[in-house]
Each structure stands twice: as C-alpha cells, then as structure tokens.
Design brief:
Elements: E1 27-29, E2 38-39, E3 45-49, E4 58-61, E5 66-70, E6 73-74, E7 78-86, E8 90-101, E9 110-111, E10 114-118, E11 127-138
Parallel strand pairs: 3-11, 8-11
Antiparallel strand pairs: 1-10, 2-4, 4-5, 5-10, 6-9, 7-8
Amino acid sequence: MAVTACADQSPDVGFGGEPPAPPAQQGPVEPKPEQERQAVPPDAVDASKLPESYPTDVWTQDNGKAVVATGQEGGCSKVHAEVAEQNDQQVRIVLVDETPEPAGACTMDLRYPPVAVALDEELGDRTVVLEQRDVKVPREEPPN
C-alpha cells in the first residue's frame, strides 16, 4: 500500500498550486497627472542635499504607495528616481541624472519631468529626503 501526502509541497507554490503573488513593486512607476496626486507638505520634504536651483515639489499617488518628485534634465541627459532607503522616519529618494558619454551635440534646454517611485508602505508621516546624483552612461548609437 502506498501513501502520499501534501506535506512535501514546494515552498514557492502558494494556495491552490499557484505561485505566490509577486512582491510589491518597488522602483520607477508612471507618474499620474498632477490633479490625481496629493501634495506632500513642504515641511515633510528635506531637499537640503539638492543643488540650490533644483525643484523641490513632491506628491504622493496610489494612496500614498508612490512618491512623485520633479526631476531636472537638460540637453542629452535624462532623469529618473530611485528609492535609496525606507525606514519608519524617512524615505530617501535619489534623482539620478544620466548623461551620455562621449558627449555629442545636445540642446541647451532644461526640462522638469515628474518622476515616480513605488514604496513598500504608504508614505504616511515619514519625511521625504531628496538627493541628486549625476552619472555618465554609454551613448546609444542610432540603429543603421
């Protein structure tokens, strides 16, 4: 007589034989239109590590589970946001300005696109700490 049991299930399979739900999304998300965001009060934003002329507007969206900041990019550079740290007191967001190298012909304009990141939990009463970092990236060659 052979007996089988379900105790030998794989830990990566959830209830009903389905894989478990993926973890909450973290990282870049698509910013919603400004009228669908909620402004974060200026006293809940620490922008002291940003360059002096950098925009400091911050919003939440998706019931506080995402933070939207205003990036700054110009010419050939592109900006995106990354969550550097999350704890009970603060969420540290780095606005990363990627500039292609070697340098080529670029316009001399500044753009201020909204950039967003997903959080592990609602922002709540935590402080948003904004930082900025410049990085060089390889220039993409146009397709032939």
